[in-house]
Structure formats: structure tokens, C-alpha cells
Amino acid sequence: MWRDPSGVPHVQADDLTALAHGHGYVTGLDRAWHVEVLRHRAEGRSAELVGPDGLDGDHLTMAADVPGTARRWWDAASARDREFFAAYARGISEALAETWPGTREVRELGLTERPVRPWDPWTPMAVHLDAHLLTGSLPEQLWRRRVRRELGDAWVPVLDAESPAAAGSNAWLVPGELSASGAPLLAADPHRVVEESGPYQPVCFSTPDVRVRGLALLGLPGVPHFGRTESAAWAITAAMTVTERVVDLELENRHGAWHVAATGERLEHRSVVLRARGGVERACSLRSCAAGFVLPGTPAAEAVLDAAVTGSTITVTVVSPAPAADPARAFSACRELLSAHTADDVMEAVSGWAVPCNDVVAADRDGTCRHTVTGSFLGAAEPPRPLHGITVRANQRPSDPEASAARLACAPPHRARRATRLLDAAVAEHGSVRHEDLLAAQLDTAAPHWPPLLRELFADPSPTAVSDPDVLSDPADASPEAVDVVRAALLDWDGSMAAGSRTASLFAVWRDAFVHELMRSTPLSVLSGPTGLPAVWDPFLHGTGRVGLAVGNIVRRGPALGVDVRGCAREALERVAHEHPGATLPPWGTLHAFTPWRGDPALSAADPVPVGGDADCLLAAGTLPGTGPACVRVPAARVLWDLADPAASWWITPDPVARSESTEPPLHRWSRGEMDQALPWVPAGSVGPAGAVGLTGSASSTSSGASEGSAGSADSGASGGSASPAGSADSAGESIDLGVLPPLPDQSALGPRVVLRPVEPTRDAAVIHAWVSEPRARFWGMTGWTCEQVCEVYEYLDASPTHHAWILELDGTSMGVFQSYEPHADPVGATYRGEPGDLGVHVLLAPVRTRRPGLTGALGRLIIEQLARCGTRRIVAEPDVSNDRAVARLIATGFELGPAIRLPGKTGQLAFLRVDGLTESR
After folding, report:
1. Once rounded to an integer, what is the mean pLDDT over residues 167-175?
2. Do the Cβ atoms of 395 and 237 come closer than 8 Å?
3. Nearest to 140, CA basis, from 170, 155, 167, 161
4. Which of 619, 692, 757, 878 sits most deeply, having the most CB atoms within 10 A of its CB?
């Protein structure tokens, strides 16, 4: 296992089973506390770790039979999948055995003496099922039922809004013909409530046949939601489908046993004892029938069921999850996606996926783009389909009527429209979509639909408007002038929820007051009461937060149901004017700061970071309007995959833990809108000492360009040069002095001084273009290119932190090009098992009229010595297999030939030269 400069792990193994074991091990190392919390939840034992507050959730887990479902799906899985999952569980168990007592949270909570038992092979499946127990349609169906009961059917579509827990996700696909790179681009940012370091774990994997980077779901092997291989990529959003059948059944008690009144079926029943930290115990009943499991109710409802008085009746809620089409393949995507080469491979891998129900987009470097909806849901299947043009998935309702009818809690369309508008504008301005266009859209903080709503709410003040002095009978009321200041500020607002905006803060405070007024003085007030279910459901069913999420709908449709939205808006204005005289508030990022939620509130929290955006923005860093400005859900990750280049992969998560001594926690870069390069990193060799190249370590798109790994030949009559230490950089910290060539056999004078000078694209493009246009340079891959095209490639390399180019100078005369690359950032890295200290090289020597005998070999020795001095342990080359001269030169130099490999634009001959001890023997 290696870690990149940001601390992201790269697990390297011989096969997928060993890879899963390594993935489990690093997960246990990095996320010991969190994975154990997830495991305890999946077993209905979370209260043992986090205290009595976890008991309601544990009861729900047991009632839904999460452990039993996981075991049944494990038993049904193929032998390869069982081996894969067992290896992952074994890896986690080994790491936990090493790290648990020393884990910070364990020490902080005094749990160091608590034993940690090994994970069962099916535990990862149980963890995943439990983590997504409330991400399907069940909370939304229960919310609709509450609205229907307390307000009537007419209110259901008005209050149909996104879930408070998981909303705002985006997954966008740009086809190759509209991409700046010429290959498909995928960008995604799932929005979730973030606990601890988040639900996603950035990881890289490699075997002799696989090289993958992606976001693993914590506790589950592989990268089933967001990932890319060398030639294919995929991303998901929630599909918003109906994933459970929920019915109310009347029960009657016959002789101490509960029966379904309509059918006479006797309920299955068993009792369990749940335990919580501190010695607390609770006896709970688990009931089920043919229609599904009985949803645990409030303590009062459970007491009636437990009393089982003969002749009594009660109505219970019964839940039946949509069955998996093929339990044997419910989790096979975790393994199969790692070997996907095409978009169609991705579609096949996810075809058996069960939970959660996902909206999947996929593409490959050949330009194929696909979409499907996968998972277990009620309704007609939605098979894979080709995609054309820019595809924006933002949890919006599908345009197809049949598909739309099978959706719940879809996002309003304005976010999808905003993303489409921004990406279309990029095409109009630049002719294509670039990386920075996608990132800018992910970070967009505009809420353009709100200013028109405010103008509608505040237009034509009525005679009873707060600006009327006679209305201000309470001495605590704000003055008309103060109200007008707030009103004017909101009407002048452009809809930006940027972190630095103070008017955004004013709007959010007014919106909270508006929601409070709606809950106080309109029919919506009935939703302020108890939900009728245990506290675990409060985030999904509590009236204020749900009304806040639907407030835009209420403004538009509430008047038809008797809601005086303008009156409530004016009352909210007055309240804000009174509480915030002069309408002066801190910037939105200060009010809207974010810190990850802790599984146990007794744990110390990370320092909050400022965040822009809002529930209605593409940067849907959401609040629950009406409950304050706190940031409830955020982008749990951002990813960007460019299929033109494996190195053009980017990600970031809001992880508050610094996993590298040299970098700050990713949370801080995430809050600034930055991203890290996603590479299967192996510590590479180097050409010069640290800093000699004059390059920064910032992430940048990298490419091997069109360079060909051939060793050319040249002659030179140059000579002379004063002595200085070999390998030193010049005073500018850029050029590298390789020393002087030895005297010729019949001469005593030293040969010319050899220097590597970084290519300056504008200055050097013309001379490089002349060299690569020669017939002898055909394997360099630039024959027929214009000087401008050559310049663009070297500008690209100049910006790369992993690929570098130098002019080879002899006594100041340009004599060739030397290029190096870190194999983990190049397609070559996917064709063999990398080792620490590997460095790839390409060399092209210029044609000269006068040949200096032995020049090529002498230059090679100086370069090899330089690489060895600077930490390179093995040199990697891959000339075209038909470049006989280059292959012969490599063999003569001591390279060992590897296999022929397929690379973009050529078939290469892989070759390796171990540097260890080479400088002493040559």
C-alpha cells in the first residue's frame, strides 16, 4: 500500500481477492471508529457504542431484518463474490485488531478495554444495507402519509420536496464531441449528511490487469458509485424511485396473539433485548407477516402491542422492500466494475445491483455514453440507453410520464436547468466544456429562482402592510423604515448564496422567519405536532424542516389552498427588521459554516469551515429552512473523470482528518473549492534534486503527449567546459548540470558540458518541431504536426507535476529532448506492476553533421548516473515494438525486455533498467 501526497491509499495486489483484503485493511486503519459504528448499527447494536440515543435506530434495523437479509444475499452470491467480500472483511478485522485501542475516539470515550470482534464475511453487505435503510422511498412515503392524514390529498404535491437527509446530488456527462479533451467527461457531487470523515473513501487499486481510482462506500469493497478504470468511468445519483410497499394493516388480538384482521394471518413475533452504553437495556418486539415487517412505533403503540389484550385492535404500518431481482448478483458490481473496459461493461456490472436504487451514467474513451436506472424498485424496469449531448442528472423528475409516476421526492427542476444553462454557455463561449467549467458549475451558488419569488411576495403592499405605522401596535415592533430597509435589500438581491454575501445571510434569516410564520398562522401548523413515530424519524417527518424544503412550492401553490403567503412574508420582514436592525449580518459562510456530524455527540468536533451555497443551488450545501442556517448536508465528494487521459482524474471529500503529514485536512481544500489529483500513486524516481526543476506540487492535468520512448542517436563536435559538481542545478534552480563527457580516445581534453534545461515551450517549439519532423523521428509521433501543435503539447507538459521535458544541451548548444514521467500518472502505469523509484523516460537526439564517436552511450551513462543520484531505482522505457534501433540500444545499455503493451497510438516494448549498483559497474 502506498499513499499519495494527500494521504489517499493506493492498494496494489496480485489479484482482486488480495486487492479486497488490502482495501479492507486500509479501511480499518483509516476509519476504525466509523466502520465499527456502522457495523454495530447493521447488527442492531449501535447503542452499545454511542449510548441510548441509538436504541430507536437499532430497533428499526432489527425489525427490517438487516442482518438476516445480508446473510441470505451472501449465501446466494457467487463463489467469487463471497471470496471477494470475505477477504475485505478479513482485512478490516486484521486492522481493527491492531488499531482499535489506540483510535482517538475510542480513547476519548473510554472504550479501550472493549473488545472488537472480527467482521463476518457478510458484514459489509449488512453495513451497506443499513446505511441505506432510510435513503429509499420509505421516509417519503411516511411523510406523504402524514401530510395526507393531517392536511388532505391536495397538500401532498405542494409539500413533495427533496428528502432532508440526501438531496442535491449531481452527475453530469459531456460527450467527446463537446469536450475540450475530445473524450467524454463525467462530473459528480453526491450531497449527503456527512458523518465523521464521510460516507466515501477515496481509494486507488491496481493489479496486473486492473487500475482503478474511485470513491469506496465505507464498509463495502470496490467503488460501485463513482469510479474509473483506464478506459471507462461511471457516476450515480439517487434515482428517487419507489423502493418499498407501505401499507396500514388493522390487527386484532385473538387469545393473546395478533392477527391481520382482514385475512386472519397470525403475526410472526420474537423478542430481543437491546443494550446501550451505561448498562441501559430495552426489550423490543419484532413482528412481521406476509405483507412485510411491522414498523416499530412509539413507546405507547409498542406498549399496546406488547400488552396483547384479547379483543383489542390496533393499526400498524407494514413495510415490504422491493425484492432483489437476483440476490446472487445484488453486490456483484463491487467486484465486476473493477474490470470494466467499456460503458457497456459498466451497464452489465450494475445490472444486478439491489440497494440503493441509482441513476447511473457511464462512458468510455471510445466515446460510448450510457444511462440506466439500477436497483430494486417498484415499477417498470428502465434498461440501459445511449446518451447524446450533455446529460444532466440532478435528482429531477424524468420527462417520461411513466418513469415520472414511479418517482418520489424529486428535486425541483431549477437546479438541472441551471447546470444545463452553465454547460451550454461554456460550449457557446469556448466551443467545448473544459474541466474548469464543470468545477465552476459544481461550485455555483446562484439561486436564480428566488428573486422573482421575492418580487411576487413583496409587490403591491396591502393596506395592512408592515409599512403602515398603525399596524405597529407592539412597542417591540420594528419601525416602517427598518422594514423597508430589509425589503429593499432583499429586492435588490441577485440570488447569490456565495460565502461572502451578507445579503444571502439576510435572505436566509428572512426565509427562516417566513417558514415559522407559515407554521404558526396557516393550516400547516398541524405539522408542528408529534410525528406519531419514534424519534429516529424526526429528521424526515418534522413539520418545520419539511415545510422549509417545500417553501418555494408553497409560495406558488399555497394561495390556492388558502395560505396568505404575502401576509406571512410581510410578518417575516417585520420580525427580521426587529431582530436585525439595519439588516446587518455576518457573511453567509460564517452563518453557514460546516463541520461533520459525530456519531457520538460527546466526541470533539472538527473546526467548522465556511461554506457557500444552499439547498436551492447547484452547490446544494443545504440548510433546513426554518431551523436555522446550519449546514445540514453538503457535497460528500466531488469527482471529475476525463477519459482522454488517466491522469486527468480529480476528487475531494470533506474529510476533517489529515492523512498525510505534509498536507492540511481535505476538508479545508474542499471548502475552498479545490480538488486533488486522483492517481494510483507509487513513489516515483526523479531527474533532479528536490526543487531543481522549479515546478510546484499543485495538481494539474498530465499527459504523456505524443512522446515515443525511443533512444535516438546524434553526433557533436562541441567540447570544453569548466568543471562543477555533476547533478547540480544552476542558480535559477532549473537546469541540471550532468557533468562533462569524457575525452575521446585520442585526446586528453575533456568533452563538452552536458546540461538539462527545462523546455520553454514558446522559445523551444520551433527547434523541437524541426527535429520531430525529420523522417528519423517518425517514432516520436509528431510527424506532420505544426509548430503550434508541438508548442501546445510542451505547454501541457510544462504545467504537469508528473511529466517533464528538458532540452539536452552540450556547451549551450541544443542537442535533443529528454522527457521523464512518473508511471503512475501515465497509461504505461496500467500495464505493469509499479515499484517505488520507477521513472519513465523518452529521448530524442537531434541530427548533426559531425559525429562525435560514442556520444549516445556517453550521454546515456550521464543521464543514468543522474537519475540514480536522485532516487530513481528503475528506469522504464516503452519504444514502439517496430523501432528496432531503439530496442537494440536499450538492450545494449542493459535494459531487460518485458512484454509488448498496448498504448494509445502504438504497441510498445516494455523495458526496465535497474539503477541500483549500475553507476559503480559502468
Report:
1. 90
2. yes
3. 161
4. 878
Q: What is the pLDDT of residue 659?
A: 92
Say if CB 508 and CB 489 are below 8 A apart.
no
Q: What pLDDT, in 10s, does the model give residues 255-310?
A: 999 999 999 999 999 999 999 998 999 999 999 999 999 999 999 999 999 999 99
The vertex-727 CA angle with 723 and 730, nearest 5°, equals 75
Q: What is the 3-state secondary structure (H, E, C) of 472-493?
A: CCCCCCCCHHHHHHHHHHHHHC
d(CA 656, CA 801): 26
Q: Render pLDDT for 444-461 as a digit per residue (tens, 0 to 9).
A: 999 999 999 999 999 865
Pull the grid cell for residue 203.
481509494
Question: How far are the Cα atoms of 445, 449, 524 from residue 423, in angstroms, in the given order?
Answer: 15, 18, 39
Contact 544, 659 (CB under 8 A): no
Q: Please say if the pLDDT value at position 712 is more than 60.
A: no
Question: Buried b / exposed e across 472-488, counting CB within 10 Å, b at 16+?
Answer: beeeebbbbebbbbbbe
Given the C-alpha cell 427542476, which residue does it identify?
A: 413
pTM for the model stands at: 0.91
Residue 584 has pLDDT above 50, yes or no: yes
Which of helix, strand or coil describes residue 252?
strand
Contact 124, 39 (CB under 8 A): no
Report d(CA 571, CA 577) in Å as an integer. 10
CB atoms within 10 A of CB 404: 13
Angle made by CA atoms 441, 698, 189, in degrees to the nearest 5: 30
CB 901 within 8 A of CB 880: no
What does the DSSP assignment read for 195-251? BTT-SEEEEEEEETTEEEEEEEETTSSS-SSEEE-SSEEEEEEE--B--EEEEEEEE
Spell 296-306 as b/e; 16+ CB within 10 A means b: bbbeebbebbe
Which pLDDT band, with edges at 50, 70 and 90, does 634 fall under? very high
Q: What nine digits make up the cell of 69? A: 437479509
Three-state secondary structure readout of 89-117:
HHHHHHHHHHHHHHCHHHHHCCCCCCCCC
The three cell numbers of residue 231 are 478506459
H or E element: which one contains 460? none
Buried b (16+ CB within 10 A) or exposed e, 19-58: bbbbbbbbbbbbbbbbbbbbbbbbbbbbbbbbbeebbbbb
Q: Is the dihedral of CA 91, 92, 95, 98 positive or negative?
A: negative
Lowest mean pLDDT across 61-75, 124-138, 158-172, 484-498: 158-172
CA distance 574 to 139: 35
Chain-centroid distance of CA 72 in Å reads 30
Backbone phi, psi, residue 638, to 5°? -130, 135
Q: Give me the phi and psi of 133, to 5 degrees please.
A: -60, -35
Measured at the CA of 589, the angle between CA 583 and CA 594, to 5 degrees, comes to: 130
C-alpha separations of 611 from 170, 673, 680 in Å: 18, 10, 30
Q: At residue 621, what is the residue type? A: A
Backbone angles phi, psi at 852, to 5 degrees: -95, 120
Report the sign of the C-alpha dihedral through residues 830, 833, 835, 838, in that order. negative
Determine the pLDDT at residue 630: 86
Max mean pLDDT among 472-476, 580-584, 848-852 falls in 580-584
CA distances from 350 to 127, 368, 376 (A): 19, 17, 12
Q: What is the pLDDT of residue 288?
A: 98
CA-CA-CA-CA torsion sign (398, 401, 404, 406) = negative
Q: What angle do CA 115, 121, 122 make, to 5 degrees?
A: 105
Element (DSSP H or E) covering residue 307: helix 299-307
Name all contacts of 652-655 with Cβ < 8 Å and 24+ positions apart. Answer: 652/676, 653/197, 653/198, 653/200, 653/201, 653/202, 653/215, 654/194, 654/198, 654/594, 654/596, 655/197, 655/198
